């Protein structure tokens, strides 16, 4: 059993949604509603398409939410300032406080790293990035993989059914994918590559100066294990000192030791290259992500496309101002579990990585549900 894994099943979490007024949302009047509106419009077609393919589940947007998003897209040319966008949300939605018996609200951050890579293997670039294997099958819908991440989400298809796919150690040390021609990019640094797996996307800069975006295209299906939690539980790093920077430094300080700890996370991600860099980065359902407006959520509680107002007074990423803004649920993550648990997308590059790595703060969620006629 990996260090830090749960040995008992967690109690069921139940949530209720209590209507409140927009005046009760801290900082609502000061937010940039036009930025939130633009992000909301980007969800319109993906959530409509997903709903047309689904048979009905918690992750699927309701007909009312799909209608509000479609209407937003239709009138987007007429909504050109924050006041008009604010009016749209207030006419179309009712905010609800999230009441639940789960863990206290918490937001973390993620980003798209910019990393050096090569299209061919060499001594400077020895670490392969793999395409999705042809025998990998989904056991759950992709938009539900965060909510259902406690069990296998993907598996290997065989002549006799399915079986668990190779683990990270099986792939990295056991050659489980060797000889299939799945490698398409090679990376320089094992720790950076590991964290790109966790982020789920990356922008690669090649030696000739060209770049490409790669994005999540499935995983081996094993549950995610936080290696930061592994180090804390083992007493190697205190919880107070655990940051993205300190974790990377510990893993890089001893390559063999770091590799062993990273393999405690049995989960392994496969990627594909975007034909058009401008199309990414992408969240779940291939929704284009918006810096500081896209939120990864637990789709066991919130449908993708839902506007969620996040208040995190202790989080001050920009000019010391407390984080209070309207986000749009546009992504999922294996570690994002619970009705008030979210991951803020901060954008691409080193500065976004710095902001994301320093984000782990208490938060309150107010979910905007479609106003009924």
Secondary structure topology:
Elements: E1 15-19, H1 33-53, H2 63-75, H3 82-92, E2 93-100, E3 106-112, E4 114-118, E5 127-130, E6 136-138, E7 154-158, E8 161-163, H4 168-172, E9 183-187, H5 190-199, E10 201-205, E11 211-219, H6 227-233, H7 244-253, H8 255-262, E12 269-273, E13 294-296, E14 307-312, E15 323-331, E16 341-348, H9 350-357, E17 360-362, E18 364-370
Parallel strand pairs: 3-16, 4-10, 13-15
Antiparallel strand pairs: 1-2, 2-18, 3-17, 4-9, 5-9, 6-7, 7-8, 10-11, 11-12, 13-16, 14-15, 14-18
Helix pairs in contact: 1-2, 1-3, 7-8
Structure description:
The protein is α+β, with helices and mostly antiparallel strands and 373 residues long. 25% of the residues lie in helices and 27% in strands. The protein is built from 9 helices and 18 strands. The chain has helices spanning 33-53, 63-75, 82-92, 168-172, 190-199, 227-233, 244-253, 255-262, 350-357; strands at residues 15-19, 93-100, 106-112, 114-118, 127-130, 136-138, 154-158, 161-163, 183-187, 201-205, 211-219, 269-273, 294-296, 307-312, 323-331, 341-348, 360-362, 364-370.
Give a concise summary.
With 373 residues, this protein is an alpha+beta fold. The chain is built from 9 helices and 18 strands.
Strand order of the largest sheet: 1-2-18-14-15-13-16-3-17
Query: Radius of gyration in whole Å, from Cα?
Result: 21 Å
Please tell me the overall pLDDT.
91
Contiguous helical run count: 9
* Full CATH superfamily name of the largest domain: RlpA-like domain
Poorly predicted sequence stretches spanning 5 or more consecutive residues: 1-9
CATH class of the largest domain: Mainly Beta
Principal-axis shape equals globular
The total count of strands amounts to 18
Count of discrete domains: 2
Strand pairing plus helix content: what structural class?
alpha+beta
Order of helices and strands: EHHHEEEEEEEHEHEEHHHEEEEEHEE
What about the largest sheet?
A: 9 strands, mixed
Percent in strands = 25-35%
CATH architecture of the largest domain: Beta Barrel
CATH overall fold name of the largest domain: Barwin-like endoglucanases
């Amino acid at each position: 059993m990996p260090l830090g894994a749960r040995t008992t099943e967690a109690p069921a979490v139940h949530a209720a949604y209590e209507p409140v007024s927009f005046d009760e949302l801290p900082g609502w009047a000061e937010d940039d509603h036009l930025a939130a509106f633009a992000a909301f419009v980007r969800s319109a077609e993906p959530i409509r398409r997903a709903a047309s393919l689904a048979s009905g589940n918690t992750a699927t947007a309701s007909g009312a939410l799909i209608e509000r998003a479609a209407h937003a897209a239709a009138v987007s040319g007429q909504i050109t300032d924050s006041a008009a966008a604010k009016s749209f949300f207030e006419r179309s939605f009712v905010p609800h406080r999230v009441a639940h018996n789960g863990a206290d609200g918490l937001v973390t951050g993620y980003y798209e790293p910019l990393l050096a890579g090569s299209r061919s293997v060499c001594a400077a670039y020895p670490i392969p990035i793999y395409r999705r294997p042809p025998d990998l099958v989904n056991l759950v819908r992709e938009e539900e993989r965060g909510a259902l991440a406690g069990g296998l989400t993907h598996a290997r298809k065989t002549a006799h059914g399915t079986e668990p796919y190779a683990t990270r150690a099986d792939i990295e040390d056991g050659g489980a994918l060797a000889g299939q021609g799945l490698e398409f990019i090679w990376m320089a640094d094992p720790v950076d590559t590991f964290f790109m797996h966790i982020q789920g996307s990356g922008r690669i800069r090649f030696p000739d100066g060209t770049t490409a975006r790669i994005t999540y295209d499935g995983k081996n299906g094993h549950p995610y294990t936080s290696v930061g939690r592994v180090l804390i539980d083992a007493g190697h790093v205190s919880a107070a000192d655990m940051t993205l920077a300190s974790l990377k430094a510990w893993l890089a300080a001893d390559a063999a030791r770091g590799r062993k700890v990273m393999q405690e996370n049995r989960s392994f991600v496969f990627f594909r290259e975007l034909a058009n860099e401008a199309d990414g980065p992408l969240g779940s359902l291939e929704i284009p992500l918006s810096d500081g407006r896209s939120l990864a959520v637990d789709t066991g509680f919130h449908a993708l496309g839902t506007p969620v107002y996040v208040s995190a007074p202790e989080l001050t990423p920009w000019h010391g101002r407390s984080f209070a803004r309207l986000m749009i649920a546009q992504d999922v993550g294996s570690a994002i579990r619970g009705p008030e648990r979210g991951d803020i997308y901060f954008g691409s590059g080193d500065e976004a990585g710095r902001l994301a790595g320093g984000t782990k703060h208490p938060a309150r969620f107010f979910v905007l549900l479609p106003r009924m006629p």
